[in-house]
Design goal:
Layout: H1 4-20, H2 24-30, E1 36-41, H3 48-51, E2 59-64, H4 74-86, E3 91-97, H5 101-107, H6 115-128, H7 130-135, H8 139-160, H9 162-169, E4 175-182, E5 187-195, H10 201-210
Parallel strand pairs: 1-2, 1-3, 3-4
Antiparallel strand pairs: 4-5
Helix pairs in contact: 5-6, 8-10
The structure holds cobalt (II) ion (CO).
Amino acid sequence: MSLKHLLEKNRAWAAARTARDPGFFTRLSAQQAPRYLWIGCSDSRVPATEIVDLDPGEIFVHRNVANLAVHTDLNFLSVLQFAVEVLEVEHILVVGHYGCGGIRAAMSNRSVGLVDNWLRNVRDIRERYKHQIEAAGDEHVQEDLMVEINVLTQLGNVARNPIVQRAWRQGRPLRVHGWVYRLQDGILHDLGYQASSVDDLDEVHHILERV
Ligand code: CO
């Protein structure tokens, strides 16, 4: 199957963009200076730049199944290091979404293949909060809670990461936020917690204890 239609759409998009702002691509090609790092799910329905209505060049993006910030993931660590130390982003957004297939798969005990290894990270979190999750309500309520707990856990992982801690010790302004996106209405929800210094680590821990 030819993908000609995609290339045609690209030409039209670039032409419209240039018509609106003739210097747009020249400016962007010279330098990227995003203020945000987005750590989100690979789900095609949660495109980072588009849902916050920003332009190309404004968000540095890392996406994987179930928006995980795993300490041993070289890809994630490379993105984090580049974003924090080279681009000097001011905000790291950990963004989960309700209705996440990765979270759903991790909550079921059925095997889905290679991705089981990746989702093991989520299954470990589910086991840690098993009682709270089971007491939360029906299957959908449990799944939504698991999505939120996962975002807070990943937020904690980012905050505990040596790259982020080093930036804080140097007094750099850097905040880590936890958000959840709802597919049904396109709305992002702030889970109401931010980490902006090494001292906030205990707070992340307490929040998860209160779950
Ligand atoms: Co997802």
